[in-house]
Amino acid sequence: MRIGIIGTGHMGGMLARAWTHSGDPQPIHIYNRSLDKARLLYEENPHNIIIEHDLNTLVSSSEAVFLCLKAKDTWDILPNLARSMSQQQYLLTTGSAIPLEQLEEKLPCYVIKLIPSITQYALAGIQLVMFGSRFTPTQQTDMLAWLAAIGTPVVIHEKDIRICSDLTSCGPAFLADWLLRLAKAAKKEGLPATMALYLVQSMAAGVGQLLAQGTWNLEDILAQVAMPGGVTSAGLTVLRAGGDDIFSSLFAATRTRQVAISQTSHNET
Ligand SMILES: NC(=O)c1ccc[n+]([C@@H]2O[C@H](COP(=O)([O-])OP(=O)(O)OC[C@H]3O[C@@H](n4cnc5c(N)ncnc54)[C@H](OP(=O)(O)O)[C@@H]3O)[C@@H](O)[C@H]2O)c1
Predict the structure, then answer these.
(1) How far is the CA of 72 from the centre of ligand 1 (A)?
(2) Hey, which of 8, 10, 264 would you mutate to test ligand 1's pocket, going by the most ligand atoms within 8 Å of its Cβ?
(3) Which of 14, 79, 99, 187 is exposed most, by the fewest CB atoms within 10 A?
(4) How far is the CA of 1 from the centre of ligand 1 (A)?
(5) What is the secondary structure of 116-140 as a DSSP string?
(6) What is the model's pTM?
(7) Are residues 196 and 138 in the same domain?
(8) Coil, helix or strand for 190?
(9) Atom of ligand 1 minimally distant from the CA of 94
């Protein structure tokens, strides 16, 4: 499938890199508001990236168009996309703020919400997928098989997008923050900072490999390491003392922020 990417910031840049490393032989067409970010991607991979200088050329060069813009910019670009996209093309938007139904009202093409994760840099992790109503079951199957080249696509209900994104897209940052705090605390106990960081990062990479191999799940790891009455269990008692309220508060905070972003972007248009 010929791929076009509109917006080569964090998500668009990652998707361009992931697809160029996926083994897909076709060059990726990219278009970004400011040329600098697009040029960086091109310089990294000149044989597999083609910079387009306007939206219409990008769209006419692509079968599947990834739209990777902030909510406000997505609203702004919709009228141009409505004019340039055809019924046969696919639009995959990485933004969660605009409901699929509203996107379909404005666009003639097949529409998908695709929430990637930074883990696609490693061609791994989850891509959350929500299909618009125009997709047939066969098209859905084909699309999922195609997306699997850069990570595992998982179909979810649009109503679950926030909580699922917290787990798959925000999750790497939540995990990274927790591990960094663990390393900083070890530094306070006298361990050199670089050593603490090295140990924690290598541990996390090892756990990732155990999970990726598929023979261990999180509960297996817990059961294997935390013996009743042992030192790990003593540490876990401290970690668990605050209960699970912190996660409910976390979900509430991301929900509130999402609503604010959606309202701001819509009111500005
Ligand atoms: N970051 C994440 O982890 C993550 C995860 C899942 C989903 N998302 C969603 O993905 C979307 C993009 O997020 P992001 O973090 O990638 O944002 P970002 O880093 O700000 O990238 C947005 C890019 O869009 C470009 N742009 C803006 N208007 C444009 C236009 N009209 N035509 C072409 N390019 C345009 C910007 O260009 P300039 O260089 O001119 O600024 C910028 O490079 C958001 O809706 C976000 O909610 C993000």
Answers:
(1) 10
(2) 10
(3) 79
(4) 22
(5) --GGGGGT-SEEEEEE-TT--HHHH
(6) 0.94
(7) no
(8) coil
(9) 10
